[in-house]
Amino acid sequence: LVETAMSWYEFNVDSDCIYDSKIYIDRTHYVDSLKRTGKKYSEYYEFFANRVLPEFNKLYRETFSLENLRNKFQAGESEISLRYWIKDAKCEELYILKNIIMTKDEVTGETIGFVYTKDITHEELHKREIEQKLEEIEALNTQLEKKQKEYEDINEELSRKIDQIQSMSKVYFASFYVDIAKDTFVEINSVPSVRDKIGASGSAQEALHILCDKMVTPETAENLREVVDLSTIRERMRDTDVGYAIFQIRLAV
């Protein structure tokens, strides 16, 4: 333990006395700490407590007070630990793991405590970085799940509409699925005379022009051309779901 410790020392929990021959304080972090503290655990405790960040100070004082140590040991607890943030001699923040291991001296019957502190700032920052990455991954997964659900809903709605169109198309002599943006069409169903002239798929606007020119009577062709003009259909159907025209068709031609 002592090889990786920032500080360690042994003390008498009952008498509050630190054993002089067993003290190590890393002066890199705690400059002149030995001069500014006494030979008692309570004085070291107060010295370090004053460096603990405010949000951890109360918990630190409650956890490592002599009264709490004595009560815990009498209750059968021999090891107490706490992780907290502290400022070192350069006012840099460190994340500290502090352990106190207590045992009963077989000769005197007194309670002996071994204090060990370790700088775990790097481990904590690395842990937080991993947690942040995991949160980002979780957020991405949530977005993907949401998008997947949206796609599933869209596909379900599209399948429902296709079923409706296929059912409705049975009462019409010709039905097509038209992609306005791509100017393409795919036949849903049509009578042979329509299919013979425009085929089962291709350019939507070209097919509509062929229908107007070769299958609709000249007197009514303009009615249909206006309705099926793909260049203006978005604007014309901005506030409606249905567009229609009355025209006459010549199926035998």
Explain what the structure shows:
There is one protein chain. The protein has 253 residues and is an alpha+beta fold. The chain is 45% helix and 24% strand. The protein is built from 9 helices and 8 strands. It has helices at residues 33-36, 41-49, 54-64, 66-74, 121-169, 192-198, 204-214, 218-227, 233-236, and strands at 7-12, 17-25, 79-87, 93-104, 111-119, 174-179, 184-190, 201-203. The chain has a 5-stranded antiparallel sheet with strand order 2-1-5-4-3, sandwiched between helices. Strands 6-7-8 form a 3-stranded antiparallel sheet. β3 (79-87) and β4 form a beta hairpin. α7 (204-214) packs antiparallel against α8. The chain is rod-shaped, with a radius of gyration of 42 Å. The protein starts with 6 loop residues before the first strand and ends in a 17-residue tail after the last helix. 15% of the residues are buried.
Shape: rod-shaped
Report helical residue fraction. Answer: 40-55%
The major pleated sheet works out as:
5 strands, antiparallel
Strand content: 15-25%
Keywords:
five-stranded antiparallel beta sheet, 9 helices
Outline of the structure:
This protein has 253 residues and is an alpha+beta fold. The chain is built from nine helices and eight strands. 15% of the residues are buried.
Task: Tell me the layout of helices and strands.
Elements (H helix, E strand, L loop, with lengths): L6 E6 L4 E9 L7 H4 L4 H9 L4 H11 L1 H9 L4 E9 L5 E12 L6 E9 L1 H49 L4 E6 L4 E7 L1 H7 L2 E3 H11 L3 H10 L5 H4 L17
Antiparallel strand pairs: 1-2, 1-5, 3-4, 4-5, 6-7, 7-8
Helix pairs in contact: 7-8
